[in-house]
Every structure is written in structure tokens, then in C-alpha cells.
Design a protein that fits this description.
homotetramer, 4-stranded mixed β-sheet, about 450 residues
Chain lengths: ~450, ~450, ~450, ~450
């Protein structure tokens, strides 16, 4: 296993990563991106075990509902880079379980890749969303054939790929890019049916980062995003060679969607479990800020908090049902129930904006206009800021300011904006989640129930 | 156990029951109310076991999550009168488990009452909602002190009660009225803190029935409510004597709410399980009617059905979580998780009208304007009705008519109207379900989570 | 102009109208349908003017916003049969204004038809929705070519039509059937591009009625639908001859949609104005029943009523804007603004179920379980019913019962069910209203505004 | 009138204004706040008229619906500081019209203040929201009596006030602080019933600024907030003397709420008109980005845009109805209709988050992850960024990037977060807008309509 420092060193591997027009040669030392490195390094240290054959608990493959349940708090604690790695590994295990008809060497390669990743304690990000070009056209009909990542050359010991993968959270901060087709492919789309693992520092890989990290000289008023931010990678494969042992699919169009579906399931489970955790946090913030404002006893405030509580409970129920009704694949890997996972993720995402509206309604304008920590330290206005932010003998002005800063950071500033969009888009957009839910629902059983109450069950051969 | 015929005979016990201005002396022979008797009698016959010491499976007390789960389809099959009886028994068991501080003879009496009910295979309805008078005043401040059922006299071997209980589904069709306080009581409200069981034919009991039963000469176009309708009872206790062995609470104000809370839980579980079943039926009807109309492939129709599917899945998840996370009381009786039951029931009820809107949107105006079965038999227009209700070689006109009649009966006629209101009101109204959810949610844990992300967890003593 | 009695006589014209399997020879004398005749006759009497050249104010053509506004209360007062007649006349005027390119004799014929209708004071219903067969196929591809009304023969002095028109409110109670294509037609669909006026008693016309009229022996507990119900007609044209002077379109496919669009506009205006009126009624009922229950001061009840008030105000604003921004056609006929009319109608229909949920939530289960008027007269239970329905010295039990009956009749019984579906379907379903709103919105102007804030307005030629 | 340069000079008046812990002595030269000065100065120049007795068109008092309508685009063009000045003047005119019973010298003073403001072309901000302390307690019961601004001393020629006003947009960038009570006051709250105008540079005034202005070195990817940002002022009155001629209320508790109600009306009108304008922008962005993505023809995307269109149309209807139904006060000043203004503002605010969800759903993850303008200029990745952001021959990568940046800036970054909260809070929070709508709705008329359909209109004296 790696220590935090070893992780930091591992990033000095020649990777080509860019930010706002400049190439970044020292990620760890960059004023904004360095914080992501530091946070990730701390996560390594927290789970470090010096035993020589130790592997990270974050990289194990769950084999039961209990295993699945136990991973959830662990992953919340370990942070984003561990979470995406876990998701990558489960995606491969789930996909492998669904691919037993294709060339068995693919499955062997995946298992080997996972084993090596466990030994080396690396971080893996999932590269799925292509640039896509014109969404109304399939890959082979695009004006630019590279709009979807594709094989541009097949050589004796590997393939060469070209294209871009977008919205890859943490791409510059991991070691491997798990690159898979973004959707089902059809005959004639063999070159776009490519799944593989690519080292971040492979020749031809270039990553453009964007981030919601606060630019403020003083990040104290960003209790969440001041320390936890994970830049998005715009990952370009500019003719990158991939050796055969890292190729998990090449041309078998029938299996192109298996990876996306597997990843989708795990991304939505991860998304759902994050929503469940955050829903409680939002309830807690709403209650704390109502108490700090002196409005916790007002009927409409209680009603809004009750609605937030019901929301938190509903999505928790879907997470529980998704785990309790998990399946176990042929190799013994457990995966959550598709139906409950997708319905829960959809509901959580679709209602998030409304839940935040309640929080903003309860908290008040001070979310935006509370003085900064430095103002509280100013000789001329610091005491006055404290005086007027206080709401009584029990509610200190700086405590209340801190609540307001937290609410702003989480829901009404750059990080909050990132969440609004990510909630909707992660795991494929609201529409995709509807479709997947529909696909896994037993529509025939529902039709039979309807025929029965209509008294038509006997002659349903119309 | 009783056969259907024995059940019919058992109703000839002198009960005073009224309908639209007239006293009904022969319930079984009444043109509208007789159907309820017949349906209930058929339910008796279906579960009848001639063994001398047999008791109905519908009256057992579940002791595990599996027991709870297995009862659900059984109860749907057995019908309303069995369902309310089951709910009554579980309410008493749950209340008993929560009352171990009060006089132990109450618990003995309840157990005796349950045992006797099992032996005699009777049907029990729950009488909870009082007339209530002016809702802004407590019982003892009402202009009419009988606005809540109360003890007007205490005698050597029993008590005399007066008041009315409203919205008592099937009251005239059972044998016992389980009468409990509708809400928490306070000091000074001892007389209103009365819980007891009263035979339907007790002297002083009078029941006014209302019903959504179709009045049509030909009920074929009412595939659901034509055979399954359960009149609501407006139950009046006009100075009714109740012997001590049937009194389960008398004056202990601190425990008045225990019965209402226990009943609320079981009513909401029953309501939730009905919603879950019906949600699938509504999905099935939407899909069948879309197929019959030729619109099943249209994007916005698919979207609406997907929304209905997600709704069905969400509430199914809450039912699963409620059962999976059940508790077992001191006497071994299992009861479902309060939090998930209430949140699920709330969500199901709050969104029902919207889901029905989708069904109406998909089905079209023919829900209302489809000719009746008799029209299809008319020589002059029958063939024309069939011709124009047909939508192609595979969709017979009468089949499609039947679907439309079913949708109307379920959602857009008298029974549908009854459901719209009952869905909202059963188990205490939307507001009550919000409050109960809130009460069972761990708000302190949520506040702690909020303090943690705000970095304030250490000094949360402000 | 006709008196009510003359109207009754006019229905004895040999029309072929059916109800629940039987042909009705005396509409006025039928126990259910006779009420519709009586109500319509009373409407005639109310507006009767004995002057020999008088015409009904309900049949005038508005020429300004003020005219449009003044018609609204008049039409609400005059009832359904006057409303559909007014809608038919305005539809023809609006369509005529949009058809000035086609054969001018069509416009002459329409004007002549309107003039004659005014002189004879007849009632006209709009026949638009076809049987439609398989909705995924166009008229000429249907298994049954009569799925859309079509010309099956063209003769020297007229045409012969065949097909059916569905959901025709009041068809059996008017004199003329204004029959128009249900949608746009394309080349090859000339035979289905037929618009004409057909007398109800024309040979070959047969109408099957359905109705939400209450079947109760005592209709006092149906304060609205007990007297006001308008059966829906399933109108069959079984080879009906139409003389040329009553043909308003025959084969000009390009103009087939003009009638549907014109009717859609006026139907939606009528629908919107009804929603506006009813929204106030629902607010009023909610407030009255809250006061009667003693809950008018409770916060969540006030919140719900406030939401109902905001809804009523929003849709009133769209009606005001639709009228204020009306256009005047080439012949001087005013018609309301399409954009505001459609958006308002959509919003009103889409939110109706939710508004009713609030009313049910506030009113309580007594909506369903209040004893009937006859129960109040019963010697044994009448006084008790009154006692327990009363909620204090100021709220008489029968008054409160009446409120509950009204709410049930309007929203939770047969008529209420009819409204749930009709609200959604009238004017073409929610989807159609979205499309029409979109079509009339200035999307290019919105795009320009977006380009301006993006700083891209100059180079929007990408 | 002032030129932009004269405006800049006018800010050098000794005002005490702070930002993130530091006092700002040169507002115009501050790297962040200077932009606000520059934008405001440009607004001055745009409307400058050198005629010696010219006054700004932005400061006129409208006297008709047409006047009200014409001001709207003018104010959108002139920017925030002009808008708040206009709102302040109309608030005083409306309040004056409602205060004719109190001391007439107040009205004279207000008129004099307005006249002087017009001559000097100053900018006025409205200071309404107090610090408020514990919201469950009235001003005189607060632990800190300064929680609401109050008179702490009355002197011969004026009063001394203490307290703070929060969320004062642009407070540091205007010249006068129009300070009014935040709510109704009661007997015993005379000291808190203070309305007055205070120069920004008055002794004792201190303002702490907060801002959503982007901190990025390169603000090109902030097309809106890069140039238009208006810091919020936390305005402290630390014993500030106000001469009598600037006091508009002092102790007349009965009139304390008049100012807040008047300001509320104008703030909500301004808010509504901004929502109407922005709703079109959001529709335009959704359509442009759908076209750029190649998804404009997909059914669910069209549905979402249709929903956005209906929303934009609904709120436009309320604005039209609010203006068309305006009233004219005793002094000839027009003010919009309260009912439509409040209902429209509520609906716009309540649904904003949902509308933005649609935009995010349509636009995709590129809202967050599009490379920055500087990346497009980088030699190593610029061309690749352009290649992969392009979606076909007609959609240039940088054009599409610009759309994404605009959407992020408006809805998913600091400025977007500010809008989410401000939309809800401006004009008093959603709850306040509900209450005001309810207050202005004719509930008695609605009750009468309900009684009429219930057949109870005659005997409504229960």
C-alpha cells in the first residue's frame, strides 16, 4: 500500500495536465490543485497498513448485502479518489459477470488489472462520456470520426486510440484511466467498441482541468470546498497506444453497452448513497439554522423541514431496498438491485433543487451576506458583525456565520453550482435513469394485475 | 371458524343500521348493501377450515419480517373486512406492548378479547375518529361535550359511553367496534380517555351508512366497485353500556394516544401496501390502454409511464424497508418501522392524484364516453359501437371498452372519488403523517452530521 | 328566438339517440336525460326576447377585448348548450378569417349557416374527435378506413360521410353537429378533409349517450350535478348525406387543421374561463369548510388555501392577458391571444388535481361519510346526525353537511370524476396544449436574448 | 445630472466601507469592487443629458399603466443602482399616498427628498431588513435592543439611530440609505418605528460588503457576472444622527408597516419583471444549447423547453395583469396591482429552481467541464479543446464553450448561487408573498361563489 507521500511522488510521472491555459508540472505544489493532492494523500495515510501484503479495504469486492452496506460509510470517509477507484473495480467485476460469452481472455485481463491495482494501491478513474459531437448522429456518421473514442490503428501488440472523454472527476489525480464505450454500439461501429485501461502518464494523454475550488485568499468561509475539491478532467487521447493486456473489449459491439450499464449501476449506487448522506446533512443544517434564527417553532418552517425529512427517508428506503435485494454474480461479486437503485437515484436528483429551495427559504438572505471571517477580526467592524449576527444569548454571531457560510458553500456558491449540475448529470442524466428504471421494472406483471382487476385476465390474447 | 352462510346469519342480531333515511332490517337482502354481505361471506368461505379448533390465518399475530411480508397478499385477497380485523388485532397487540406500565388487567382483557375473536372468527372494525366539533377546541371545551366519545356514567360492572365515531369503513358489516380515543388526552380529559370493544348490536348503537356503490341497473361497467364496496359507518353511541371486561382504557390520559398511534401505524402499513399494489395496477392499466390506443411508442406517453413506474418503485422500497426494519415488541409481536411506513404512506398519498392525472392523460376521453355493455348488445348501435371502439385488427372494441370502464370505475367515478379522499384522509391526513415521520426521524443525528461538515462538531454547545 | 317549450318541442324531430342499450324516443321525459332538457329549456327562457327579429346575445360575434370579457359571465350563466353554440360560431368566424385563400364560397356558406342559426336560435355542438383507430397510423393507413370521418360518396348536390365523432358533449340536446377534421391532413387524405354542418336528426346519425348524472332516488345531496349534467354523445355518421350548402371544406387538405386550431383556441378559452371561475369556488369551499371545521386558523390549512388562492390568481392573470392581447380578424371578429390562452389552460388543467387534493385535505373524511338529507329527516337518527355534524353553536349540522355534499359532488363522485378527465382532455390533452403554446411563443426572440447575455449576439451565424 | 466621472468622484466622500477584513478607501480602484463602480458610471453616462435642468428618466414617477410598462426595459438597461433608486422613489410615493392621516410634514419631507434626489441625480438604496435577533421575539423583547434599528436619542434638530440593516444590495455604491421599519410595529415599539434617509457617508455608518464577483484572473468565462456584480451591504448604524428634515416616520407605530408594504410591492414588481426577462433568456439558452448539442429534436428535450416556455408565459401574464390593473394614488402616482404582482412573484420564485433543473438537464455536464478561454489559446491543447467541443461543421467549439460558460455563470457558479437565494428571499421570502397574496385576494367573493353553487347563498348567516 502507498503512504500519502508515496502517492504525491507517484504523480511526478510525466503526466500532461493543464489548467486555465497552462501546463502544470507540479500538481502537489499548485495553489489550487495542490489541495486535491493533499486531501487525497491524507486519505491514503488514513487507511495505510504497513503489512507487506496488505491491500486497501477500499478495493475489495463485496459479496453480500452486508458487505455492500459496510462499504458505504467507509467510502464517504475515504473521499472521492477512493470512491471512483472502488466504482471502477466493481464496474469491471459486474461487467465481467455479464460477459461470459465473449473471449475469456478479456475477463482474465480485467482480473489481472484489478489484482495489480490492489497490489499497487493505485487510483482509477472511469472515462465514459465521449465528446459525442452531434448527439443526433451515431459515431460513424459524425463529421469528426473522433467524436467518440475509437481505435485508429491495430498493431501487433496493442491498439492506438483517439478521442476525448469528458467530465472525468479527478482524472489528473489518479493513475489509471478506465476507458469504456459510452453507449451501445451497432454493427459497423466496431472501432468505437473499445474498452481498456490507460495510465494517466501514457504518451498522448492530455488532461484539461476545471474546478469549483474557491479562489479566495482566505478559504475559511468555505468549510467544505475549501479542502475538498476534485477537478474535472477533459481527457484527450491523442493517438495513445494501449497494449493488449490492457484491452478489455475491442470490436465486439454486442458487449459495448455492458460496461456502461455496469458503471451506470455503480455510479448511481454511489450517487444515491451520497444523496442519502447529504439529505441528512441538509435536514440538519435546516434545523440548526432555524434554531439559530429563532424560527424552529414556526409552522411553515416545521412543514418544510418535515418535507426534507420525508425526502431523506424515501431515498434512504430505496438505498436499503437496493442493497437488501442485491444479486450475486457468477464470480461471487455482489451488485445492488437495478430497479431500486435507479428509481432512488432519479428521485433524489429530480428533487434536490426543491429541497435546497427549502433550505434557502429557511436560512434567509444571510446565506449570501454574512461577513467573512476576516471581517470578524477587523477592529472597526468585527465586534459589530458579531453583535448583529448574534440572535440571542445562546447563539453566538460567529457560530451563526459559520452555519451560513456552510450553507452557501454547499448550495449557493461555486461548489453548490457544481452539485446542481452533477446531481442531474451523474449516471447519465434524468432521462437515462428513467429509461433504466423502466427497463428493470416488471411491466408484464403490472399488466397482468391490471387485466385481473378489469376481469380480463383470462382472455388477454387480444 | 364461520362459513359464509353462518356469517350472513350472524348479522341478524338486532343491529340498528340505516341507509338514506331508512332502517335496514335485512342487510343481506338489500339491493346495494347486500353485495357487501355477499362479498364478505365469500371471503369467509375462501378461508374456511372445518377443523374444530381452526382459527383464521387472517387473525394471526406476525412475529417477524417474513410473517409481516406474507400477510400482505393474503389480506389483499381476503378483502376489506378481514383487513380491518387484522388491523384491529395488531393495533391491540402493539398498544399492549407500549402500555406495560398501566394496569396489567387492561392487557389481559385485550388478550382475552383477541383470543375470543379468533375462536369466534368475528370481524372487528376500528372506531377512532370522533365527531370532533370545533377542531380548535379540546374535548372538554366543546359546546357539546359529546363531540368526542366519552364516559357519561360509571357503574358497578361497566361504563356508559356517548358520542359518535365517523368514517368507520364496514362498521355495519362486522361484529365488534374497537373504540379508542382519536388523539392524546390531557389532565381533565379523563372521561374522554376511553378505549373499549362494543358489539355492533349493543343497545344504543346506531349506524348510518353511506356508500359509493354504483346505482346502475347494470353494473357490468363497474368491474371493481360493482362487487367490492364497503359502506362507511357513521357510528353513534347513544348511551351504550360496556362491561368492564371489554374496557381497555378508562381515564388514564397518559395512554390515550397509545391506541391511536398503534392504529395509525397499522392503518398506514395497510394503506401503504394497498398503494403499492394499486400503483402496479395503474402502471399496468396505463400500458394496456396505451397499447390499445396505439400510443405506447410515443415519447411523452412512455415518459409518463416511466414516472408512474418510478413512483411504484419508490413506494415499494418504503414498504420493503418498513418490513425489513420491523421491531418485535415485548410479547413477541412484530410491528413495522414507523419512519419508513409513514414516509412511504405520505408520499404515496401525496402523489396519487398526480399519478392518476397521467393515467387520464394517456387513456383519453373514452374513459368517460365509452358506450355501456348494454349498448354493445343493442341491435341498432351495438356493432357500430364495437367498430368505432376497435383500434385495429388486434384490439377488439369491447376489450378496449372494458379497459376504459375499469379506469373510470377506479379513478373517475364514485369509487374513484372515494379513493381520492380516502387516500388523503386514511391514517390521519397528510399533515398527521408528516408529523409522525418527523417524530420518528433522528433529528439529532442529522444535526450532528451538519455540524461536522460545518466544522462545528466540537463546540456544539452553543 | 325560441322559448323553453319551443326548444323541447324541437327535439321531437326523429333523432336517433340511445342510452344504456335503449333508444330514447322522449328525451324530455326520460328520468335522467330529461333533466338536461329541462335545464337547457330554462336557459332559453332566461334569455328569451319576444321581439320578432331578436337574436340571442349568446350568439353574437365579439369584436373587441371588452366584448370578449363581457361574454364570460353571460356564458357561465347560460349553461353548457349555449356555451358550445357560442364556441361553434366563433370557431367558424376564426376559421373563416384564416381561410381567405380557399374557395370563397366556403366562407359564404359559413356566414349563411351562422346567420340562419342566429335566426332560428338553435344549439350547435362541435364534433371534432374521431374514433381514430390505431393512433400510430394516419387515416388512410387504418385497418378500418372509417376510423376518421370521411367522404364515402360525392353526389351532384352533396356528399355522403361515414365515421364517428366521440366525446361530443350535449350532442343529443342540440340541433346541429358542426363536424370538422380532428387534425392536419396531408396529400392523399382528401376524403378525410371534410368540414360540414349536419342536423342531429339527419338520416344515418345515431348518438349513444353516457352520463355522470346521479342515479339516486333523492338527488338533494348532488347540489351541482343533480340539476346540471350534459351527457356525452358518441356520434355515428352511418352514411349521412350533407348538401353542398352545408359543406365548409371538402378535400382541401392544407386547410383541414384550420378548423381544429380555431376550435382549440375557443375551447381552451372556454376551458380557461371555467377553470378561473371554479378556482374561486374551490377557494371559497376550502375556506368555508375550514371555518365550519374550526380549522381556518391553523397554519398548514392557511398555507394550503394560500396556495389555492395563488393558483386562482395565476390563471386569472392568463385569462386577463389572453383577452387584453386579443387580435381582430379580417372580418372584424375578435379572438383571444393564443399564447396566454394555451399556457393558462395548460397550467389550470395540470394543477387541478393538486388543488383538489388540498380541498380534500382541508375538508376531511366527512366529504364521503356525511349522512344524506333523508337521514337527517329520519326519526331515529336525524337529530343525532345533526348533533354530530354540528361543530359548535354557529355551525349547524345540516349546513355543514351541505358543504360536504357539495365538495363530494364537485370533486369526489361521478361528476367530479368526469371533471378530472375532462379537464385534462378538453382542447386536446395536456401534450397538445404544450405544443400549441410552444408554437405561439417567440422562440427566436428568446434565443436572441440569450445570445445577448452570452455576448454572442453579433456573431450568431455559427 | 451626473456624468460617470462625476459619479466616481462622488464616492470619495469619506464613506466607511469594508471588504473581507479591510477598509476600502478607493472603491473605484479596488480590483473587485471597482468593477461595480465602473458599470454604474457607464449607466450614468448612457442616460446623461447635459441640459442644466435635466433629470434622469429613471427617477420619474409613473402615473399610468403605460408609464409603468415603459419603465421596465429602461430599468433593465440602466442596471441595478438605477433600479434600486427607482424602487426607493416609488416606495416613498406609494407610502405617502397611504399615509395621508399622519403628520403632513412627513409627506412634504418625502417629496422634498425626492425632488432633491432628482436634481442631484443620486442613487438611493433601500434599507429594510433588520438584524432581527431571535425571530420568535418582538423588537422590545430582544436580548439586544438594537436587533431592530431604533432611535436611541431624540435631540432638538434630529434623532440618533442605532442598529443594522442587512442584505442591502449596492449599499456602498449609492448616496442615500432609505431606512424603513422591516415590519408592522405595535404600541410600545415607538422607538423602532423609524423611517428616514441617511447619507452613506454619515458619521457612524459602516458597511461590510460581500460579493459573488468572480476572483479569476481571467473573467472571460463569466460573461454576466464578470462585469455586472453588485456587492451586498451589511449596513451598521452606530449612533447616527439624522436631522428632522430627513425623518419620514418617528414613533407612529400604526404606519410602520406602510413603508415595508410599499417597498414590498415595488420590490416584487421589480423582481417579477426580472424573472420575466430572465425566463425568456433561460428558454433561449436551453434552445441554443440543445441545438448546439444536436438534441433540439428529441422529444423529452422539447417537452422540457415547452415547460420552460409555459413558465415564462405564465409569469409574463401576471406582469401584464399587474400593470394593466394598476391603481393611481391620491397624488397621481401609479402603482401595480398587489394581487397579480405577488402571485406572479411567488410563482416565479417558487419554480425557478425547477426551471434551472431543466436547463442543466438539457445542457449536460459541459456546463461545468468546458475548458476556459485560456485553454483554447494554449498551443498544446487549444486546438484539441476546440475539436472536441465542436459538435459538427456548423457548431464551433468556442461558440459552444461560450454558451456553456454563460449557463454556468448564470446558474451554476457563485452568481447563480446568489440568484437561487435572492430569488427566494427578495421581497420577503416565499411565505411573505403567500401572505400578501392572500391578503389582497377577495376571499369573501370566493366564499359567496361557493355558497351559491352549494345552494346556500340565501342563508349564509350561519
Amino acid at each position: 500500500m502507498l503512504t500519502g507521500d508515496q502517492y504525491k511522488d507517484s504523480l511526478q510521472d510525466g503526466r500532461q495536465t493543464f489548467f486555465e491555459g497552462e501546463k502544470i508540472d507540479d500538481l502537489a505544489g499548485h495553489p489550487l490543485l495542490g489541495q486535491t493532492v493533499a486531501t487525497t494523500a491524507a486519505g491514503y495515510d488514513r487507511f495505510y497498513d504497513p503489512a507487506p501484503d496488505a491491500t486497501s479495504p477500499l478495493m475489495t469486492v463485496p459479496s453480500s448485502a452486508d458487505d455492500l452496506r459496510e462499504m458505504i460509510p467507509l467510502l464517504h470517509e475515504a473521499g472521492m479518489m477512493a470512491h471512483v477507484t472502488y466504482t471502477s473495480i466493481q464496474t469491471l467485476k459486474t461487467a465481467a459477470g455479464r460477459m461470459n460469452d465473449v473471449k475469456p481472455d478479456y475477463i482474465e485481463r480485467m482480473d489481472a488489472f484489478i489484482a495489480e491495482a490492489q497490489v499497487n494501491d493505485v487510483r482509477i478513474t472511469q472515462c465514459i462520456t465521449d465528446a459525442k459531437g452531434d448527439r443526433s448522429l451515431p459515431p460513424a456518421k459524425q463529421d469528426d470520426l473522433d467524436s467518440y473514442v475509437r481505435v485508429v490503428d491495430r498493431q501487433r501488440d496493442g491498439v492506438v486510440i483517439r478521442g476525448a472523454k469528458l467530465h472525468i472527476t479527478g482524472a489528473s489525480f489518479g493513475h489509471e484511466l478506465l476507458t469504456i464505450p459510452t453507449k451501445a454500439m451497432k454493427a459497423g461501429e466496431e472501432d468505437w467498441s473499445i474498452g481498456c485501461a490507460v495510465p494517466v502518464n501514457a504518451e498522448g494523454v492530455r488532461i484539461i482541468n476545471t474546478t469549483y475550488a474557491p479562489r479566495h485568499a482566505d478559504t475559511r468561509s468555505f468549510p467544505v470546498s475549501g479542502t475538498h475539491h476534485y477537478p474535472e478532467g477533459f481527457v484527450i487521447f491523442d493517438d495513445v497506444f494501449v497494449p493488449h493486456e490492457r484491452v478489455f473489449l475491442d470490436g465486439e459491439t454486442a458487449f459495448a453497452a455492458v460496461f456502461a450499464h455496469s458503471l451506470g449501476l455503480w455510479e448511481r449506487l454511489g450517487g444515491l448513497s451520497a444523496f442519502v448522506e447529504e439529505a441528512d446533512q441538509l435536514v440538519g443544517l435546516a434545523q440548526l439554522v432555524a434554531e439559530a434564527n429563532g424560527t424552529a417553532g414556526i409552522a411553515h418552517v416545521k412543514e418544510k423541514i418535515s418535507e426534507m425529512i420525508i425526502h431523506a427517508t424515501l431515498i434512504r428506503a430505496t438505498l436499503e431496498a437496493a442493497i437488501e435485494n442485491c444479486s450475486v454474480g457468477p464470480e461471487g461479486a455482489a451488485f445492488p438491485n437495478e430497479l431500486f437503485t435507479n428509481a432512488g437515484k432519479f428521485h433524489a436528483a429530480a428533487n434536490y433543487n426543491h429541497i435546497v429551495r427549502h433550505l434557502h427559504d429557511i436560512a434567509g438572505g444571510a446565506v449570501l451576506t454574512t461577513p467573512s471571517p476576516a471581517d470578524f477580526e477587523n477592529e472597526q467592524v468585527g465586534e459589530l458583525a458579531r453583535k448583529y449576527m448574534s440572535t440571542g444569548p445562546d447563539i453566538d454571531g460567529e457560530y451563526r456565520a459559520r452555519l451560513m457560510h456552510t450553507i452557501r458553500d454547499l448550495t449557493a456558491d461555486s461548489y453548490g453550482g457544481w452539485k446542481f449540475v452533477t446531481n442531474i448529470q451523474a449516471g447519465g442524466g434524468l432521462y437515462a435513469q428513467r429509461i433504466v428504471t423502466r427497463r428493470h421494472y416488471d411491466l408484464d406483471a403490472a399488466k397482468l394485475k391490471a387485466l385481473q382487476i378489469a376481469g380480463l385476465a383470462e382472455n388477454d390474447d387480444h
